[in-house]
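Researcher: I need the complex structure. Ligand is pyridoxal-5'-phosphate. Inputs:
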Amino acid sequence: MKTSLAIPVEKTASSRLPQTDFSNLVFGKSISDHMFVADYINGEWTDFKIEPYAPLMLSPANATLHYGQSIFEGLKAYKNDQGEILVFRADANWSRMNESAERMCMPSIPEEIFMEGMMQLLELDKAWVPSGKGSSLYIRPFMFAMDDYIGVKPSEKYKFIIFTCPVGNYYSKPVSVKVETVFTRANEGGTGAAKTAGNYAASLYPARKAQKDGYDQLLWTDGKSHSKIEESGTMNVMFKINGKIITAPIDSGTILKGITRNSVIQLAKDWNQELEERFLTVSELETALKEGTLEEAFGTGTAATIAHIERINVNGKDYSLPSISSNSFSKKVLAELDGIKYGSIKDPHNWIIKV
Ligand SMILES: *Cc1c(COP(=O)(O)O)cnc(C)c1O
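Model: Output:
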């Protein structure tokens, strides 16, 4: 990608690369040397820079800390066999970030700042992109309020930062999930479609309860009737029943518009695989599990890509899913997405941007 935005760079005096064990990457623990920072002051984005990754100085009255005006994105860069760095669908993350910003009364971030900041950061820290199947560089752009003011109102100042983390596989084995029918992640009219901090804070308590009972994640249901499956913690979910894939629609405003979800839907279209965007009810799911017509269930998200589900708890009862065969849709779609991301197969939808 050609770069035009002039971004001053302050390089780290001592890279943490030598101390990083690339053969044993724990998701989100290692952070690369540099970060991109921009400030929103007096109605405009200014003071772009790339500097060593370091703690921030914040006022105790910082509005984010109290009222949670904070949004984020997550995307990945991959290394191909030639050692080039490929970024997957960054334009979609940029536009989704601006949708989150609007819902949270935050300023939008111009495409040039998002893209150039990210690309120039990736160029500088390209040695941090791991090679090898399943490994990638997780990119975390985020924006938060910077006013030092203890009243509830939209902040006037904001900070936008991008940092990156080398990561391995998020879930290395199939996951167990529980259908949640007491707690709620999102309600119509709420913030479920925004990638905003508070959604995740509110999900911790029910998720921890489920983890104590031996489940990796929850399957959230709608907040009104708890009868319709919505999504999982940081993944959208898809079910294949009687040859047809079913995934929740995204127009309710309660579901995060996953880019992996969108990519899987596109591939299903390309392959003439039947797919319905509609709510699967809990009772339909229960029936399919009882009758053995649920062929596959999987989560879709940037961190996990495709997470196979092996066990589902519905209404207090555990059901095991059939093991994933090599010709299953989820295996095929994972292989296709990996092929595109690592540059080993054609990219027919122009999803890849080269650094
Ligand atoms: C980020 C996220 C997803 C997945 O979105 P991708 O763009 O595919 O990574 C799904 N659900 C929630 C709640 C999320 O935060």
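Model: Summary of the prediction. Residues 197-212 form the longest helix (16 residues).
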